[in-house]
Amino acid sequence: xxxxxxxxxxxxxxxxxxxxxxxxxxxxxxxxxxxxxxxxxxxxxxxxxxxxxxxxxxxxxxxxxxxxxxxxxxxxxxxxxxxxxxxxxxxxxxxxxxxxxxxxxxxxxxxxxxxxxxxxxxxxxxxxxxxxxxxxxxxxxxxxxxxxxxxxxxxxxxxxxxxxxxxxxxxxxxxxxxxxxxxxxxxxxxxxxxxxxxxxxxxxxxxxxxxxxxxxxxxxxxxxxxxxxxxxxxxxxxxxxxxxxxxxxxxxxxxxxxxxxxxxxxxxxxxxxxxxxxxxxxxxxxxxxxxxxxxxxxxxxxxxxxxxxxxxx
Length: 313
Hints:
This protein is α+β, with helices and mostly antiparallel strands. The protein folds into three domains: 34-84, CATH 2.40.50.100; 95-177, CATH 2.40.50.140; 182-312, no CATH class. It is 26% helix and 25% strand. A five-stranded mixed beta barrel has the order 8-9-10-12-11. Strand 9 (107-111) and strand 10 (118-121) form a beta hairpin. Helix 2 (18-27) crosses helix 8 and helix 6 (246-264) crosses helix 7. Mean pLDDT is 84; it is low at 8-16 and 227-239. It holds the Pfam family S1_RRP4. GO terms for molecular function: RNA binding.
């Protein structure tokens, strides 16, 4: 709410209605939101019998005090504070997008913005040609023919080890090296875990991968491709060699700026919210390069407020 109001301060009063936006925010049900605390705030524990001090809290003079700003989380007697911005915390089965930073032994080390070390074992990838066999010393020598330093890849969290390290795998046609598109990084908290993280934005002609670690990838969907085949196109060498058309590059730019706009307003990022931003920009005749201007942000916020008010009636 505070981030949204901060954006309103830079907007022309004639372009949007703060009262309309405030009514829309209230209609979302403020009572259902968790408590927000700042550093030094006292956390109310009078309503429960006893409590356990969790992360982000400290007991001072018999009272529970927040040691960092964030949202209060209560699990039985455990009371903790979850920071609004933090590094990605992996969960089993998460779809992530990461960049290869090093080859070490029989594994690749990746950067996915997590707290822990992230590795992709040679045994956890599909060999060229789809061969099903034990990995040999020759496969280890030729690891750079699969992924090399700097490659951007999509993968799934396979396991979480006791030491906090994360193991990934790409044993599926929809995972692998990403090419022929572009990506944007946002706070991981804005990406909610959902059933499908691979989706097709039909109206934009794009395929999207929504990484749970906050990386979002877009690439063109070529003619004749279905939603199922498009998510596996990064595995095809020919896909990276086909240059994107001017219209496709414009669509990717619009999608990237839509994600940046949503992130600047601390709004959840999903295929529906991205398409909604692009729809408003198309209706108002706003080009991709102007989607991050204060004037368009005001137009989008007013449209979003009207939609929320209508849905609450």
